[in-house]
Automatic annotation (TrEMBL):
PANTHER family membership: LIPOPROTEIN YIAD-RELATED (PTHR30329:SF21), STATOR ELEMENT OF FLAGELLAR MOTOR COMPLEX (PTHR30329)
UniProt xrefs under InterPro entries: Bact_OuterMem_StrucFunc, OMP_bac, OmpA-like, OMPA-like_CS, OmpA-like_sf
Protein name as it appears in the record: Peptidoglycan-associated lipoprotein
CDD domains: OmpA_C-like
Domain of life: Bacteria
Keyword Transferase: no
Signal peptide: 1-22
Length: 192
């Protein structure tokens, strides 16, 4: 019969062997690793191709508007989409035409994309008030895209940046000179 220390030593050796074998099973074969990396690179290239296609579609549609398209880290940002009167969140007809063009491109070619409507204000008023007003503007555009243009409500979300200084087109400008600050922008977060 084995003594207690021999059994403990045997158990420790067996445990070490099992642990070593289990550790070996966690190694990834080089071929599997290369295949996974290749698949990720292929997906990345496909996403970039879709984003390039979306940008080309948008550039063609928005050539007649004063809009800027910016590609950033897998997203496409459409600036100067809708402007608002001072202290208002109502869309004007010119903005509705641009939003209609945007929705048509998204529905026709990029129906799975997620769109974030970003609302902004000029710095007149309190920060809390401007945050709420920016949200009303973003909501107005989101609601228009969903109810009038038929985009999915799960596809379009709205956020407010209010008077965030680093997001103002004309820093510190209010009233007439701050009209470019009173706007929404659209960000396409996923072009797949």
């Amino acid at each position: 019969m084995l003594n207690r220390s021999s059994r403990a030593a045997g158990f420790a050796v067996a445990l070490a062997a099992v642990t070593a074998m289990a550790g070996c099973s966690n190694y990834v074969k080089r071929t599997d690793y290369d295949a996974a990396i290749s698949k990720l690179q292929s997906n990345d290239a496909q996403m970039q191709q879709q984003l390039d296609s979306l940008k080309a579609d948008m550039e063609q549609r928005f050539a007649k508007y004063d809009a800027t398209l910016t590609e950033m880290q897998g997203r496409l940002r459409v600036d100067t989409v809708a402007h608002f009167e001072f202290n208002k969140a109502d869309l004007n007809d010119q903005d509705k035409a641009m939003l209609q063009d945007f929705a048509q491109v998204m529905k026709a070619h990029h129906s799975n994309a997620v769109v974030t409507v970003e609302g902004f204000t000029d710095p007149a008023g309190s920060s809390a008030y401007n945050k709420r007003l920016g949200q009303k503007r973003a909501d107005a555009v989101r609601d228009y895209l969903v109810s009038t243009e038929g985009m999915s409500d799960t596809q379009v979300r709205a956020v407010s940046y209010g008077e965030s200084r680093n997001r103002q087109v004309e820093p510190g400008a209010t009233r007439e000179s701050g009209s470019n600050n009173r706007r929404v922008a659209l960000v396409v977060d996923y072009a797949g």
